[in-house]
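ugh ok fine here u go
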Amino acid sequence: MGRKILFVTTDQQRYDTLGCNGGQLARTPVVDALAHEGIRYERAIPQSVVCMPSRATMITGQHPSTHGVWMNGVPLPTDAPSVADTLLRAGYRTALIGKAHFEPYFDAFGRFLENTLGSVGTTPPGGTHRGFQHLEMATHGVMGNLHYARWMRENHPEMLGQFYATVDADLQVNSAGGGDTGAPQVKVNQVPRDWYHTEWVADRTIAWLDGLDTDEDWFCWMSFPDPHHPWDPPESEMGRVNWRDVDLPVGYPTSPAAREALLDAKPRHWRLWYDGTLVSNYEAPARWVPATLTPDQVREVNARNAVEVELIDEALGRVLRAIAARGWGDDVDVIFTTDHGELQGDFGLLFKGPYHVDALMRLPLIWRPAPSAVVPPAVIRRPVGLVDLAPTFCTIAGVPIPNTFEGTALPTDPNDSRDPVLTEWDSALFGVDVHLRTITHDDVVCTTYLPGTVHDGTEGELYDLADDPLQHENHFDDRSRRARRDDLIDEMRTLRPPETSPRRALIAPV
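structure:
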């Protein structure tokens, strides 16, 4: 019997939402305890700041340039490398429960298994899908044919209308506001907590684990849809955080003039989105203008987000207690992370998009190695990437790392040297093209722009992470920093893998 792996992901969660990372709004004692016992990474960087490319990196161990999922709506080929398949061939039982999103959700003709398996069961035709023997799918509500949506329709149909409708009648991302402040993508949801998707994901994970033999090795990816918008947690839980008492984020400039001056110092698409004249990411409601965001709306969004984070922490605690009850506690590695961050008021913005700053790029990442492995607790301050997850799972399992993987196993020693981390963004949506390439070092993050709809290829961003942690001062055009900037750009070009050619087809917006 070897080390088992519980891989826990959330969706769109900021680094500073955890107590162990300095967060003060949500209470996260379960994840905080894992961080205390294990390894906490202070600068975990995604290879993309949007869902599908980032999740494809997690499973393939490859950069978006290599696996080819260059934006949401581009399906990951079913024969792409998968760490689950590597572990399955090594004798592990494998499951994915919750949000997958390797294939587009907008799938009216049922082309993709992840959207249709709910009608068939939990075992894919042929026995596996991307190396997973068992799949139970959920997303942020009750649309579509995923397992959670079917479960709600069959067991609690009276509650279907309580969830926020993520798309409107025109199949555009809904911009309707709700709650006390009219904040976008907020809704009062009267669904009981026990029926909410966070609890469902934990319940189904425990049920799968309970069906395993005690001596089996297993890899379980437990993937919570929250705290991604819409912000509609069970209303019964909203007493945890009074939004009126929530402090505004330190990254939110309260003066409109200060916000506008800050955005004007960045490449043009920042201010254009703020003014509502350019939208480059489908998940940001096209009919919502960020400049209309009020301080109270920021407070309410952050409060609801914190409630969702607390529910995830408590659900994870239930799963860990079930693992301990099976006698596995000493032999289970737990890795907790997310796919990308959330602006959540920083710079006067919400949601996400082509903005390579800490709000979206600095992620929570905790690895609590199995106690039987006797790995000392540590804090790793050097940047690591989500591309390093798949090699880490192989290292835990004691199997060779496939040569298709581009990352390296996560470090456990704070003194280990690391290469800088690369991040990409490509989007072509609403007739708008935006393309970013970024390199992150210990002390600096540098972004270049390829030619696009509003960029000519000369623009960029350069931030000193030590002196300017909020990334307000863009030094890209500072003459005194030109040599360092050019060295970073050369290094990024050297390290960047070749791009998949031809570019994979965009099938849907999300």
